[in-house]
Amino acid sequence: MKDTHVTVNLPGREVILIGTAHVSRESIEEVAGVIREEKPDQVCVELDAGRYDSMAQKDSWEKLDVAKVFREGKGFLLMANLVLSSFQRRMGAELGVKPGEEMKIAINTATELGIPYTFCDRQIQTTLSRAWARCGFWSKSKLLASLVSSAFTTEKLSETEIENLKNRSELDGMMSELADYLPTVKETLIDERDRYLAAKIWAGGTSRQVAVVGAGHLMGIKSHLERISAGEENADVSELDKIPPPSLFSKIAGWIIPAIIVAIIVLGFFRAGAGVSLSMLLHWVLWNGSLAALGTLIALGHPLSILVSFVGAPVATINPFIGVGLFSGITEATMRKPRVADAETISDDVSSLKGIYRNRITKALLVFFLSSVGGMVGNFIAIPSLAGLLGK
């Protein structure tokens, strides 16, 4: 039995797990070969229906309403999804393999042989939302830094290195590094999904199944399947489909910075008079609005988007329920409406800085992100600046 195969023998049923690398030519051949050889009663694939539709439908991006994404507060989720898919696509392009091709081959082979198939993964939006919601401020910062660096990395992996990623020793080392750097993200992306995948495979209920999953999930799924079979673990994973509500600290944290700024300005009024208070207010608006506008300028946003960033940043600071990125992103998407060509080329454009600036969808996301970062930095700079004016 290969290192990428794990057979789980349970009372009355057998599950053959095939561990793959998502841009591996060898994985594609292996998946098709095992399904043809084993002829199972069911094939499970590590996909959700939404991801399969986006892979199968060439026009899936054309249906994207960027302004709606911003209004629903999903700008960061869309950015993360694009960065992750871009990273896989870039690696696959170097090897002549499309990301997730082994999953499509599993479905096509099952269909050809008349074998029913099922999707056993959680929706990607739910996974990313849970990962983001469970991260603290520092973990969120490290996660954003990791996403940004992976978007622009020039590192290339050879076909041999890709295949080595399926080896148990390599995987253990990678999981250990991820757990040390971002323990909450590792728990959400790997550990939770091990349990989720196992529960959905178990729910298939057939006597012989082949499940095609990422190699990093093999041993975790095996362990959970054995515990479910033994009655030691509940197969109900509905709670893993829910987004955790914000903690009390998270709810309060959004009001801390505006409260500090307002308090300093009000204190300035009582201690030094209206003139100093007005000067402090002007300093804050200039720092906050100017850096938000600068972020939009760096993104080469529309002139109106730059103006909206400047005006909207102070408003967004005082009301933590909205962000300046909402204003600037919607303005950019309205003034430079995404074209069909942008939707058609987004998968390629997102893999290069030139492409990101050229594509109107990714440019609107860049405006959203950089204006948000600029406004946040402006607030952090403004607070000590205001305190300095107060002390004079």
Topology:
Elements lengths: L4 E6 L2 E8 L4 H14 L3 E4 L3 H8 L9 H6 L3 H21 L5 H13 L3 E3 L4 H11 L2 H15 L7 H6 L3 H14 L1 H22 L3 E7 L3 H12 L18 H25 L1 H25 L4 H16 L5 H12 L4 H10 L3 H6 L1 H32 L1
Parallel strand pairs: 2-5, 3-4, 3-5
Antiparallel strand pairs: 1-2
- Total of helices: 18
What integer value in Å does the Rg equal?
Answer: 25 Å
The topology string of helices and strands comes to EEHEHHHHEHHHHHEHHHHHHHH
The profile of the biggest β sheet is:
5 strands, mixed
Strand content: 5-15%
Shape call: elongated
Distance between the amino and carboxyl termini: 76 Å
- Say how many strands there are: 5
Mean pLDDT: 81
State the helical fraction: 55-70%
State the secondary-structure class: alpha/beta
Major sheet strand order:
1-2-5-3-4
Q: Low-confidence parts lasting 5 or more residues at pLDDT below 50?
A: none
Quaternary status: single chain
Give the structure's gist in a few sentences.
With 392 residues, the chain is an alpha/beta fold. The protein contains 18 helices and five strands.
Structural features:
single chain, 392 residues, alpha/beta, five-stranded mixed beta sheet
Structural commentary:
With 392 residues, this protein is α/β, with parallel strands linked by helices. 68% of the residues lie in helices and 7% in strands. A five-stranded mixed sheet has the order 1-2-5-3-4, sandwiched between helices. Helix 12 packs across helix 18.
